[in-house]
Amino acid sequence: MTQTISHYINGELDAGSGGRTGAVFNPSTGEEIARLHYGDRATLDRAVSTAAQAGQRWARQSHAARQAVMFKLRELVIANTDRLAEIIGREHGKTILDAKGEIGRGIEAIEFACNEPHVTKGEYATNVGGDIDVFSMRVPVGVVGIISPFNFPIMVPVAMMAMAIAVGNGIVWKPSERVPSAAMEFARLCEEAGLPKGVFNIVHGDKEIVDGMLEHPGIAAISFVGSTPVGEYIYRKGTSHNKRVASFTGGKNHMVVMPDADLEAAASAFVSAGFGSASQRCMAVSLLVPVGQATAERLRELVIPKINALKIGPYNDPAADFGAVISAQSKQTVLRAIDEAVKAGAEMVIDGRDIKVAGHENGYYIGPTLFDHVTTEMELYKQEVFGPVRGIVRAASFDEAIAITNLHEFGNGAVIFTRDGKSAHRFMSEVEAGMIGVNVPVPLPVGYFNFGGLRRSKFGESHMFGPDAARFYTKLKTVSQRWPNPDQQAMPVSLAFDA
Ligand code: NAD
């Protein structure tokens, strides 16, 4: 029997009043495994007012009390990693090992959020003039709306939410409708950790709920992660409703390989960072940019056998390197991108279109596909392809490699492989990407650093993870205070400025 997934409001499962439902699939088999209730505005209203009331009470708890819940939550996520990984793999299609990796990065965000008192405490200056002391304080924004993508059902939303909760906000989370179950498990863990009922709420759905969140006067801040067109829309609409919005969007990450690099290491890095999780990562390496003809030829020789050795299989096959893409529709989009690249004249080096996974014939599998001689005019260079299709864009010089990297509209991550410090330094200075790797293929920073892209990979001036998250989820107040001296006469009236 197909399972039904409800909203989670005020600590209770709640079918809502929307009436609409949608199917949730297991991408490894193509089977429908659940029906998801889609919320409506009335359901959202209830979640927002619950989050507002419970959030206010939560914010009044001491820092130590809130920290204790975050520490407990960290322990519970660690203890439940296997269970969470199974839930993620079943709905997403990524391997269990990969799912555990993302949970680990989510735990980092919780660990950093345990430092909430340190990152939110203010500044103080005594006697700035006339016995006045000035100090700053940070208070929670109120209700935070979280809108998350399918590709990291735990890491991404937890990276946004951990600090939002820790500083004392109420939360309304709309998970991706394609991977809703990890959210429900996270809710259970929050409850077990002692987070008071109503602080954390989930409303499932699609654009209808997102629009409701963007327009809702009770929501003060929106954190979004997803594709660029949707993220730009969310940023514009959310800010027009006077909310602070942080929108983290698409990536097309270049990996430049210099002739002096360890080419064997660079080839392995390209294959793992390029094809891991069926390339459904915003930090995946999409394009390999070898500098010079000899580097390109040697790298191509090295990557081909490594790519051909990759095993594709269901999420729970321990031997699989990567699994299915998220949906039948996504598979069609990726296959179309392959056909277009062929038509545009890119050289197909490895063709993954006809892959069959025995016993899983209806799963959404695509084998690893590699194109060489991709040019910056081709759609394969321009578009983010969220599936295992990677390209080689050859550069004649380092100057050209930097130009190719900077020409792209996205600037999430960019990576250089080299043994030369000067090249590395030039790369990090001149390349317009928010996260740079030097001989590190996936430069996803640790949880206590800020995470976020540049150009059209991010809208709004904030970051995930690190200290910026604490600033984003709090409002700053600056207080000037003077205490009357009981022995003194009343203050003289003066209309001069700054008296
Ligand atoms: P998506 O944009 O389709 O969906 C993201 C969220 O927005 C989902 O919750 C979805 O329900 C909602 N949504 C979808 N269409 C909408 C619409 N028209 N109006 C309002 N809301 C809408 O993204 P996805 O396919 O779930 O995720 C993949 C994308 O996310 C990729 O582009 C990837 O690069 C990006 N991503 C970026 C980062 C980052 O940190 N920059 C991290 C992970 C994923």
UniProtKB/TrEMBL annotation:
The UniProt entry, under Pfam families, shows: Aldedh
Entries under InterPro entries matching the protein: Ald_DH/histidinol_DH, Ald_DH_C, Ald_DH_N, Aldehyde_DH_dom, MeMal-semiAld_DH
- Determine if Iron is one of this entry's keywords: no
Among Gene3D superfamilies, the record links this protein to: Aldehyde Dehydrogenase, Chain A, domain 1 (3.40.605.10), Aldehyde Dehydrogenase, Chain A, domain 2 (3.40.309.10)
Name all Aldehyde dehydrogenase domain ranges. 20-479
Spell out the SUPFAM superfamilies in the cross-references: ALDH-like
**Which keywords does this chain's UniProt record carry?**
Oxidoreductase
- GO MF entries: methylmalonate-semialdehyde dehydrogenase (acylating, NAD) activity
NCBIfam families assigned to the protein according to its UniProt record, in alphabetical order = MMSDH
Name of the protein this chain belongs to: Methylmalonate-semialdehyde dehydrogenase [acylating]
* Source organism of this protein record: Paucimonas lemoignei
